[in-house]
Amino acid sequence: MEIKTVNARMVDPLALILSGQAYVKLTLPDPPPPDLMRDDIRDAISRMKPAERQHALARVRALIDLGRAVETAIAGGDVVVGPHV
Fold this sequence. Notes:
mainly alpha
């Protein structure tokens, strides 16, 4: 009877030490797909006070604007990061 050995490089050491949920969150694309985070997002929002919701909404809108600016710069080939030295 032949016993096959497992190549140690095939085993992800994180999978051996982290809980299932922590491992999945760490190995998902960054950011994870929205459908996988929907419940977490809803839960976090439900715990926010009205002022916190307004602040979070303003921050999200600012990040969307930044994302659009970066997208535009990349599409146009004119990406400038920081001052030129």
